[in-house]
Amino acid sequence: MSTDDPTSDSMPFITDDSENEGSEDPRMKPVQRDEEEPASGVSNIRATVTVGVLCYINLLNYMDRFTVAGVLPDIERYFGIDDGKSGLLQTVFICSYMFLAPLFGYLGDRYNRKFIMLIGISFWSVVTLASSYTPKEYFWALLLTRGLVGVGEASYSTIAPTIIADLYIKEKRTRMLSVFYFAIPVGSGLGYIVGSKVDDLAKDWHWALRVTPALGLVAVVLLLFVVKEPKRGAIEARPEHTVHRTSWLTDMKALCRNPSFVLSTFGFTAVAFVTGSLALWAPAFLFRAAVFTGEKSPCVQGPCDTSDSLIFGIITCVTGLLGVGSGAEISRRLRRRTPRADPLVCAAGLLLSAPFLYLAIVFAQASTIATYVFIFLGETFLSMNWAIVADILLYVVVPTRRSTAEAFQIVLSHLLGDAGSPYLIGVVSDSLRQTDSYLWQFRSLQLSLLLSSFVAVGGGAFFLATALFIEQDRQRAENDVTSDDEPIIVPKSGRSTRVPVSSVLI
C-alpha cells in the first residue's frame, strides 16, 4: 500500500483488531478498540497509571544518584579523601551506567522491556543497600558498589521513554515526557534534601543511602503488577507485525547519518556536563564559601553542616518544576509558528543559563543571597531542555531504533559530559590549590567550576545547529518504511537499479 493512500494510517488498526478479537461481531470491533483498548494494547487509564509508575521510578533513580552529593562533606571526612577521589564517586557510577546502556538499548528494542526493567531495578536496590555498609578502610568498596548501581539505572533509563512513546503521540507525548522528566531535577533535589535530613537525624551518613532501596522495593511491586508492555509503534500506525527490525550495525549507521539526533546529542552532552558538575560540587562549594566568609565553622569532626545541601535541594526541585514545565509549554506554543521550536528553546535555555551560573560562582564570596538567586535562575533555564531533548529523539528516530538511540545518547552525553565533569572539576581544583587553607579550598573549587559556564555556551551552539536539520529529519522518520525484502535488479536506461521487491509488486 502506498504511503500516500489516505486509508493507510487506519488500515493496520482494523487488521490488527480482526486478528485479536476472535469471533466477536466484526461490526463492533473498531468501536470496541477505540473505547476499550487503543492501538498500543494499553487502556487509557492504565497508560496514565503506567506513566505515573515510570515517573516514580525515575524519581528514585535521581534521588539515589544525588544522595551521595548531599552528604559529600561527611563522606570526605569519613574516608579522608581529597576532591579528586570525591569526584570519582560520580564518575565511576556514570561510567558503569553509560557503558551498559548500549546493551540494554539493544535488548530493549528486541525483548520485553518490562522484565528488563524489573531485573535492573531489583539489582540496583540491593547494591545501593550494600553500599551503605561500607567501612572507612574500604573506600574502594564504596566506589565498586556505586559503579554497580549504574547497572540498574542503565536498564531503566534507556527503556522507560520508549514505553511512553508507544503509549502517546504528538502533543500528548510531549506532555507525558515533561511529567516523566520532572523527576530528574525534582528527584535530584530530593536526593540532597533526604540525604541531608537523614544525616542530621541519624548522625550517620550511611543511613542516607538506605532510604531509596526501601522505596525501590515498592517500585518493583508497582512495575510488576501495574505496568503493561505496549505494542511497539502501533500508536503511530506502525503495528509491530509491520515494523521490521534491522541489525544493530545498521541501526547505528542510520543514527549517525541523522544530523538532528547527532547534534542534539552533543547539545545534551553540554547539559550533562554542567548538571554533573553542579550536582556533585555545588553544595560543597557553597559550604566552603560560607566557611571562607566566616558564616560557618569548618567541618573538623562529627556530622558536617548540611544546610547548604538542603537549600540547594529545594532550589533544584523548584527550578526543575519551573524549567521543565515552562520549556515544554514555550516549545508547544512556538511550534505553531515554526517547526524548529524544540531545538531553539533548548538553545535559548543553555545560552541563558550560562551567564547566571557564572555570576553565581563569582558572587559566592560576596553575597550568599545573590549566589542562591543566580543559581535559581541558572538552573531554571538549564532545566528547560530535559523533556524537549527526549521528544526530539523520539520523533526523529523510527520506533525500532529508539532504545538503541536512547542508549547511544546516554553513552555519548555521559562519556563527554557528567562521567568526567565531576572528576575533572575535582582534579582541576586540587591542581589549582596552592595551600590547604580554607581560602584555597574555596578559591580553587570556584575557579574550576567556572568551566561549566563556557560549556553551556557550546551546548547552545549545537542546538542552534540542530534547528537547521530538524524538519527534514522528522519527515524522514515519519515516512520511513523499513523493509527486509531482498532487492532485485530492474533495468533502467540501460543500467541495473536495486529496488525492494515490495515496491515492484505494488
Description:
The chain is mainly α and 506 residues long. Helix content is 71%, strand content 2%. It has 22 helices and two strands. It has helices at 11-20, 29-36, 44-70, 72-79, 83-108, 113-131, 139-157, 160-165, 170-202, 211-225, 248-256, 259-292, 307-334, 341-362, 368-382, 386-396, 402-415, 421-432, 438-449, 451-466, 470-478, 501-505, and strands at residues 487-492, 495-500. The protein has a two-stranded antiparallel ribbon. β1 and β2 form a beta hairpin. It is globular. It starts with 10 loop residues before the first helix and ends with a helix.
What structural keywords apply?
two-stranded antiparallel ribbon; mainly alpha; 506 residues; 2 strands; disordered N terminus; 22 helices
Q: What is the count of β-strands?
A: 2
Write the element-wise H/E pattern from the N-terminal end onward.
Answer: HHHHHHHHHHHHHHHHHHHHHEEH
Uncertain residue ranges: 1-35, 482-506
- Rg from C-alpha positions? 24 Å
Count every helix, treating DSSP H or I runs of 4 or more residues as helices: 22
Sheet with most strands: 2 strands, antiparallel
> What is the average of the pLDDT values?
77
**Beta-strand content bin:** under 5%
Biggest sheet strand order reads: 1-2
Measured between the Cα atoms of the first and last residue, the distance is 7 Å
Mass-distribution shape: globular
